[in-house]
């Protein structure tokens, strides 16, 4: 009774996809943050920059 016939090319591609996904997940945990958190942080930073610019003292230039 022979075993099941498998396509080695498809098996290798499937194994590579699984390995790539595992690596991507590891990198996302290590380096990434969810998009919603990044947008929230960008909005907070922009709000702080606007507040800082509002309190900035500007020198009046003397025109000749």
Structure notes:
By secondary structure, the chain is an all-alpha fold. Helices cover 70% and strands 0% of the residues. The model has no long low-confidence stretch (mean pLDDT 87).
Quaternary structure type? single chain
Q: Which outline best applies? A: rod-shaped
Give the strand content.
Answer: under 5%
Q: What is the radius of gyration computed over CA atoms, rounded to a whole number of angstroms?
A: 27 Å
Q: Please give the alpha-carbon distance between the first and last residues.
A: 101 Å
Q: Which class of secondary structure composition applies to the elements?
A: mainly alpha
Mean pLDDT: 87
Range of helix content: over 70%
Instruction: State the total count of DSSP E strands.
Output: 0
Largest sheet: none
The SSE string, one letter per element, is HH
| Poorly predicted parts | none
